[in-house]
Amino acid sequence: MTTFTVDKQTKRRFNSDPKLFIEKAIKNFVRTSPANRLTSFHDQPIFDEPLIGFADGDDPLFAEFKKIVHEKHLSPREILSLHLTETLKHETAEIGSISVISFVLPIPAETKRSNAQEKEGPSLRWNHTRWQGQDFISDLSKYLVSLLESMGFLAIAPDLSPFFEILLVPGGFASKWSQRHIAYAAGLGTFSLNDGFITSKGLAVRCGSVVTNLKLEPSIRPYTHHLANCLFYATGKCGKCILRCPGGAISEKGHDKLKCFQMLFEKQKPWIEGAYGKGYIGEYAGCGLCQTGVPCENRIPVPESKQQKVD
Ligand code: B12
Ligand code: SF4
Ligand code: SF4
User: Fold this and answer.
1) Distance between CA 308 and CA 301 in Å, rounded?
2) Does residue 164 line the site of ligand 1, with CB under 6 A?
3) Alpha carbon distance 130, 124 (integer Å)
4) Cα of 104 to ligand 3 centre, how many Å?
């Protein structure tokens, strides 16, 4: 990765409060990067201001993820060791401290509005957000790695590394670095009935992360269990996302990944092939209908009984 030249004043600011420095650097990159633009929509931002969380790379949760996600899911220490020995060709993997920086990028109101109106496949804006947005996440991850390396630390963006893989498992898929589980460990949100990750900015978001040997104070996890932010599990009511899914992939039992995959890659082919309008991009249209037009789209949903009544 390219490294920057860091002047003494910048280094001092970094050393005095590395978490604040990193938060500001990420937010500034999201605000100013020309890559965070929907080029087919008057260069409007792809993403709003991000949420940022930190996890201790030795948190026992990462060992649990080997049971919850897949035995091949990598721990932060494993992935940084692989980077050190296999990519950088160091003889030993002496790392010291280990931390994870997780970021969540909320999708702006106009994109969500356009997708919420759809019933069978995504809006064009949502489709461009899927693909241009993921390219932007790669840019942001590379920038963060370069910044940390410039400050003298080791850093890796796991999903851009040669160690990342998506595995086909019974009933669906599991990656070797699940961004949502990482974001859960960093205190940014919880899972839900439709599998979507509900943050304080809702579940219409995408996410990314970087692992480093810089010591960073972990964020608090303000929830009691991994489904706490979903109304269905919190109150036994809701299930609005079941009605939003055009592929019948969501039920009271949860999310059927194979049905979802079929909708994304087979049934929504006409979108990409131009039958419903020109200009769709990417390998698949991107759906995400379950992430819009639902009570958890923009926030952690509140039960109706607790909503403030305005007469
Ligand atoms: C493979 C994949 C898919 C597969 C399978 C999805 C899946 N749920 O696994 C398919 C193709 C179906 C898919 C579809 C979509 N995807 Co996708 N996908 C991924 C990918 C590459 C890996 C996911 C993974 O590893 N899952 C592992 C499995 C095991 O996790 P899981 O089933 O969700 O987790 C369950 C269990 O772990 C369980 N659990 C049980 N016990 C416990 C205990 C604890 C403590 C915890 C924490 C959890 C837990 O909780 C979860 C919910 O049941 C990630 C990118 C990445 N590297 O993370 C994006 C990602 C998950 N996808 C994303 C998105 C946006 C989509 C789509 C909207 C399509 C699009 N426009 O991109 C749809 C939405 C589907 C949905 N309803 O969630 C976003 C998620 C955003 C969000 N708010 O949730 C991600 C993170 C990409 C990104 N960079 O932002 N995706
Ligand atoms: S729509 Fe309701 S049930 Fe579905 S994920 Fe959101 S809060 Fe949970
Ligand atoms: S992404 Fe589309 S097909 Fe998949 S669960 Fe959500 S609404 Fe259903």
Assistant:
1) 13
2) no
3) 10
4) 20
The pLDDT-based confidence of 311 (bands split at 50, 70, 90) is: very low
Separation of alpha carbons 230 and 243, rounded Å: 16
Q: How many CB atoms lie within 10 A of CB 258?
A: 12
Point out which residues pair with 106 in neighbouring strands.
205
Residue 96, number of CB atoms within 10 A of its CB: 9
Q: Which distant-in-sequence residues (6+ apart) come within 8 Å of 199 by Cβ? A: 51, 104, 106, 183, 188, 189, 205, 229, 300
Residues above pLDDT 90, as percent of the chain: 89
Gap between the Cα atoms of 200 and 37, Å rounded: 23
Taking the C-alpha atoms of residue 152 and residue 146, their distance in angstroms, rounded to an integer, is: 10
Strands (E), 152-305: 155-156, 166-169, 172-175, 189-190, 198-199, 205-212, 250-251, 254-255
89 dihedral zone (left: phi>0; alpha: psi -120 to 50; beta): left
CB 291 within 8 A of CB 196: yes
When the pLDDT of each residue in the chain is averaged and rounded to a whole number, the result is 95
Position 128 scores a pLDDT of: 98
Q: Which ligand is the nearest neighbour of the Cα of 223?
A: 1
State the residue for tokens 């439709």.
Answer: 194
Residue 230 near residue 192, CB atoms below 8 Å:
yes
Q: Is the CB of 175 under 6 A from ligand 1?
A: yes
Provide mean pLDDT across the span 231-242.
95
- Given a contact cutoff of 8 angstroms between Cβ atoms, the answer to whether 264 and 284 are in contact is yes
The whole-number pLDDT of residue 309 equals 53
Place of tokens 């990342």: 164
The conformation of residue 166, written as its DSSP 8-state character, comes to: E
Of all protein residues, whose CA lies closest to atom 8 belonging to ligand 2?
Answer: 230
**C-alpha separations of 87 from 139, 161, 227, 272, 301 in Å:** 20, 9, 37, 37, 43
CA 239 / ligand 3 centre spacing (Å): 13
Q: Does ligand 2 lie within 6 Å of residue 290's CB atom? A: no
